[in-house]
Amino acid sequence: MILAASVDIPILSDIVIILGLSIFVILLFRKLKVPPIIGFLITGIIAGPYGFQLIEATEGVKVFAEIGVILLLFIIGIEFSIKSLISIKRAVFIGGTVQVVGTILLVMLIAMNTGFDLSAAIFLGFLFSLSSTAIVLKIIQDKGETSTPHGKTILAILIFQDIIVVPMMLFTPLLAGESQNIWMEILMMILKAALLIAFVLVSARYIVPWLFYQIAKTRSKELFILVIVLICFSIAWLSSALGLSLALGAFLAGLIVSESEYSHQAASNILPFHELFTSFFFVSIGMLLDIFFVADHFLVILGLMAATFIGKSLIATVAGAFLGYPGRTSYRIGLSIFQVGEFAFILSTVGITYAVISDLTYQYFLSVSLFTMGITPFMMSKAGKIADKLATSRLASKIGSRTQKMFFSFPDTPAEVQDSPEDELDKHIVIVGFGLNGQNVAKAAKSAGIPYVICEMNPDTIKKYKALGEPIHYGDAIQHEVLKGLGVYKAKVVVIAISDPLATKRIVTQIRSISNTIHIIVRTRFITETEENLRLGADEVIPEEFETSVEIFTRVLNQYFIPQKKIKEFVRNVRADNYEMLRGVIKRNPMQKLTEEFPNLTTACYEIEMDNSDITDKPIAETNIRHKFGVTVIGLKRNGELTTQIGPETTPKKGDTIFVFGKPEDLEQFYDKISI
C-alpha cells in the first residue's frame, strides 16, 4: 500500500489541472457571455506546450480527446436513427459532394497560384474541405435546431465529410508517390465499408434489440451501461481495424442503438461521459496552437482566415442552393460550416508523415483552423440575423434567386402563381411549414371544406405532396413577395408551424406589414418564445412545451378518476392563467381590448345536433336563452347563409350552426343541451 501511494501518475495531475483551469476560465467566460467551447480552447492554449507548459502527459490528453470525439458521434448517431439518415440521403450525397468538391477545387486553384505543387494543392484542398463536426453539431443541439432545414442540411454535409475523410487518407500516399495500387486500396475500402454497414443493419434489426431485452430483464443499471459502452467502442474499434475511421464507427454504433426502444436510456447514461471527454477534445485542440508563431505571422494568418471564411461560406451556401433551399437557409448553412475541423487535424498528420506539406505550411494550417473554430460559436449565434439581412438585400436576393433557379426551381413558386386557381382563394388558410402540425391543419381544413394553401422550403416534401394533389408551393415566407403570392392579403388565418424561432418572428412581422386583420396562429417549441411573438403581432401562440405539460397532467388526473368536468375546468384555468400572464405586457389591438373589458368571456360556434324545447323551434324572445344558459346568441348559419342580425324573433333549428358569447363553463353547459 505504501508503494502504491508513492506511484506518480502524470495524467492524474494533468486531469486536475485541466478540469480546475477549465472551471475557472469557463466561469469567467460565462460572465462575459462567451461560449464554453472557447473556454476549453483557451484552457488548452494556457496549459499547453506553447503556453505555461502545465501539461506533461500530452499523449494521454490526446487519448481522452479521441474518446470525446467517439462519444460525441455515438450520441449523434443515437439521436438520429437509420430512418432519419435515409430521409436526408439526398442532402448527404448531393450537398456534401458540392461542398467538399467545390472547396477542394477552390483551394487547389488558390494554392497552385501561390507556389504550391499539384500534390500539396490537392492535399490542402482535402484539409480545408473538412469542417468541425464536434463544434457545429454541439451548437446546433444546444440551440435546438437539429430539426430545422438548415440544421438537417448541415448535419448531412458533416456526415458526408466524416465519410469522405477515409478515402482522403487512402489517397494521400498516392499524392506522395508512396502507393503503387491506390485503386485496389479504394476498392477494398468500399468493400470493407459495405461489410460494416451490412453488419450495422443486421445488428440494429436483430442482435442489439435482443441483447438489450436480456439486459433489461436483469434490472442492472451497471450492466446496461457496460453494454452501451461496449457497443460504442467495439464498433468504433471494428471500423478502425477495417481501415475506416473511429468516428465513423462510433456514429454507426449510435445508429444501431437508435433503432431500439432503449435508445433514450442509453443516451442519458452515456451523456455525462460524453460531456467530460468532449471537453478534453477541445482542450487538446487548444494545446496545438503555437502562440509565438501566431504572433510572428499574425497578419498573414488573419488574411488566410478571412479567405477561408469567405470561400467556404460561399461554397456551402451554393450547396444549400443546389439542394433547393432559399437564400436565408443557404446563408445559414454557409455561416455554420466555414471553419476547418477536427478530422483535418488527423488527416494533416498523414500529410506530414508522407511529406506532402511542410512544417511551415502545417503551422499556418493549424493556426487558421483554430482561429476559425474559435469564431464559430460567435458566427453561429449571429448567423440567423446575418442570413436575414443578406436574404433581404437586393444584390444577394438577385444572386440567390438566379443561383437557386439554375440548380433547382419549381414552376409554381408563390411569386409565380398569380394566374393559378389559388390566386382566386378568399378567406383561406395559409399554412407555413408542412411538418406534422402543418399536415394536421391541412387535414382538418380539407375535412371542413375550408380552402388552404401551403408554403414549404423542403424540395422533397414539395414533390411528395404536390404529387398527392396538395396546394403546396415552394418559397421562404419571410419574403414579402412570397406571402403576397400565397394570397395572404385575402386570407383569414395564417398558421406558422416551422422549427426556426427566428424565422417565425420575421414571418409574423412581415405578415403584419401586409395585413392587420388576418388572424395569426404560431406554434413554438418553448413557452419563453410566446411573449415576443405576441408583441410582434401574433394573435395566438401555442408553445409545445406548455401544451405537452397540460396533456401530461390531464392524463395523470384521468388515472385518479377525477371527473372530466373538473379536469376540463382545471385545464381551462391553467391555460387562462399562463397565457394571460404572458400577454400581460403586450399592447392589445382594439378587439383585444374589448375582450379585456369582459374577462373570462369567449365566443364559440356549435352545430345544433338535436332538438331541445328550451332552445330550438321557438323565437329567442320566448326561450330566453341568455337568462337560462348565460350565453348570448350573436350569429346563426343556415343552409350556408350566415346572419348576424339576431333579434327577438330569431328561431334556432336543428342543423343550424349557432354562434354564442359567454363564459366557458356556460358555453359548455349550453353545448351539452344541443349535442348528441
From TrEMBL:
<feature type="transmembrane region" description="Helical">
    <location>
        <begin position="92"/>
        <end position="112"/>
    </location>
</feature>
<feature type="transmembrane region" description="Helical">
    <location>
        <begin position="12"/>
        <end position="29"/>
    </location>
</feature>
<dbReference type="InterPro" id="IPR006153">
    <property type="entry name" value="Cation/H_exchanger_TM"/>
</dbReference>
<feature type="transmembrane region" description="Helical">
    <location>
        <begin position="276"/>
        <end position="295"/>
    </location>
</feature>
<dbReference type="GO" id="GO:1902600">
    <property type="term" value="P:proton transmembrane transport"/>
</dbReference>
<feature type="domain" description="RCK C-terminal">
    <location>
        <begin position="591"/>
        <end position="676"/>
    </location>
</feature>
<feature type="transmembrane region" description="Helical">
    <location>
        <begin position="302"/>
        <end position="325"/>
    </location>
</feature>
<feature type="transmembrane region" description="Helical">
    <location>
        <begin position="182"/>
        <end position="202"/>
    </location>
</feature>
<keyword id="KW-0813">Transport</keyword>
<keyword id="KW-0812">Transmembrane</keyword>
<dbReference type="Pfam" id="PF02254">
    <property type="entry name" value="TrkA_N"/>
</dbReference>
<dbReference type="InterPro" id="IPR036721">
    <property type="entry name" value="RCK_C_sf"/>
</dbReference>
<dbReference type="InterPro" id="IPR038770">
    <property type="entry name" value="Na+/solute_symporter_sf"/>
</dbReference>
<dbReference type="InterPro" id="IPR003148">
    <property type="entry name" value="RCK_N"/>
</dbReference>
<dbReference type="GO" id="GO:0008324">
    <property type="term" value="F:monoatomic cation transmembrane transporter activity"/>
</dbReference>
<keyword id="KW-0472">Membrane</keyword>
<keyword id="KW-0406">Ion transport</keyword>
<keyword id="KW-1133">Transmembrane helix</keyword>
<dbReference type="GO" id="GO:0015297">
    <property type="term" value="F:antiporter activity"/>
</dbReference>
<dbReference type="InterPro" id="IPR006037">
    <property type="entry name" value="RCK_C"/>
</dbReference>
<protein>
    <submittedName>
        <fullName>Monovalent cation:H+ antiporter-2, CPA2 family</fullName>
    </submittedName>
</protein>
<feature type="transmembrane region" description="Helical">
    <location>
        <begin position="153"/>
        <end position="176"/>
    </location>
</feature>
<dbReference type="InterPro" id="IPR036291">
    <property type="entry name" value="NAD(P)-bd_dom_sf"/>
</dbReference>
<dbReference type="GO" id="GO:0016020">
    <property type="term" value="C:membrane"/>
</dbReference>
<dbReference type="Pfam" id="PF00999">
    <property type="entry name" value="Na_H_Exchanger"/>
</dbReference>
<feature type="transmembrane region" description="Helical">
    <location>
        <begin position="223"/>
        <end position="256"/>
    </location>
</feature>
<feature type="transmembrane region" description="Helical">
    <location>
        <begin position="61"/>
        <end position="80"/>
    </location>
</feature>
<keyword id="KW-0633">Potassium transport</keyword>
<keyword id="KW-0630">Potassium</keyword>
<feature type="transmembrane region" description="Helical">
    <location>
        <begin position="337"/>
        <end position="357"/>
    </location>
</feature>
<feature type="transmembrane region" description="Helical">
    <location>
        <begin position="36"/>
        <end position="55"/>
    </location>
</feature>
<feature type="domain" description="RCK N-terminal">
    <location>
        <begin position="426"/>
        <end position="543"/>
    </location>
</feature>
<dbReference type="Pfam" id="PF02080">
    <property type="entry name" value="TrkA_C"/>
</dbReference>
<feature type="transmembrane region" description="Helical">
    <location>
        <begin position="118"/>
        <end position="141"/>
    </location>
</feature>
<dbReference type="GO" id="GO:0006813">
    <property type="term" value="P:potassium ion transport"/>
</dbReference>
<comment type="similarity">
    <text>Belongs to the monovalent cation:proton antiporter 2 (CPA2) transporter (TC 2.A.37) family.</text>
</comment>
<feature type="transmembrane region" description="Helical">
    <location>
        <begin position="364"/>
        <end position="380"/>
    </location>
</feature>
